[in-house]
Design a protein that fits this description.
The complex is a heterodimer of chains A (107) and B (123). Chain A has 107 residues and is an all-beta fold. In chain A, 0% of the residues lie in helices and 50% in strands. The mean pLDDT of chain A is 97. The chains are: A mainly beta (107), B mainly beta (123).
């Protein structure tokens, strides 16, 4: 299985901050990388698919980049509703695997 | 707008079989190139892929669970189901169903997800 490693596992930030989350794959996954947001008690929701494509309805302050083994999710200006846990997930090879998550907390 | 809803017992005894159903509304489960999926999340932990059934009927199961998992579809009811046998306390989790989106003939991402249902394994 392809291992997905996210860093940091948690971070504290203020409203308006620029936030970057890193996801690293144990082998090259081309651009087959998705990002999800999960709020407490809720199901995950896709934000970015295929590394950099913004899902319809997702605010443009979210962006994704990367290819191969290294990927980033960036929130350009953190909003109160963005405090959540973020997961990356690869779909390059089966089984699809998720990163361990990054919890974004209020500073 | 497609919506998914999980249903099934919230408590299962050790060694028994966990059975859940996902009802799809707002679209036909047999139309479109989709991978109808199950994912689980132990309390306070991360996400684990269980498996999926393609609209063609083909299935894929996570090798870590393959010996205990069956996913099936009932197109007449617009539902798909999960059975996980020989459960232990380690199988306690929130179980989600989701629609897998395909591109170029392969699974790519999950959207939308059901709200999730907590299943506790305990005697």
């Amino acid at each position: 299985d392809i291992q997905m490693t996210q860093s940091p596992s948690s971070l504290s930030a203020s409203v308006g901050d620029r936030v970057t989350i890193i996801c690293r794959a144990s082998q090259s996954i081309s651009s087959y990388l998705n990002w999800y947001q999960q709020k407490p008690g809720k199901a995950p929701k896709v934000l970015i698919y295929d590394a950099s494509s913004l899902q319809s309805g997702v605010p443009s302050r979210f962006s994704g980049s990367g290819s191969g083994t290294d990927f980033t999710l960036t929130i350009s200006s953190l909003q109160p509703e963005d405090f959540a846990t973020y997961y990356c997930q690869q779909s390059y090879s089966a089984p699809p695997t998720f990163g361990g998550g990054t919890k974004v907390e209020i500073k | 707008q497609v919506q998914l809803q999980e249903s099934g017992p919230g408590l299962v005894k050790p060694s028994q079989t966990l059975s859940l159903t996902c009802t799809v509304s707002g679209g036909s489960i047999s139309s479109g190139d989709y991978y109808w999926s199950w994912i689980r999340q132990p309390p306070g932990k991360g996400l684990e892929w269980i498996g999926y059934i393609h609209y063609s009927g083909s299935t894929y199961y996570n090798p870590s669970l393959k010996s205990r998992v069956t996913i099936s579809v009932d197109t007449s009811k617009n539902q798909f189901s999960l059975k996980l046998s020989s459960v232990t306390a380690a199988d306690t989790a929130v179980f989600y169903c989701a629609r897998g989106i395909a591109a170029a003939g392969t699974f790519r991402w999950l959207d939308p997800w059901g709200q999730g249902t907590l299943v506790t394994v305990s005697s």
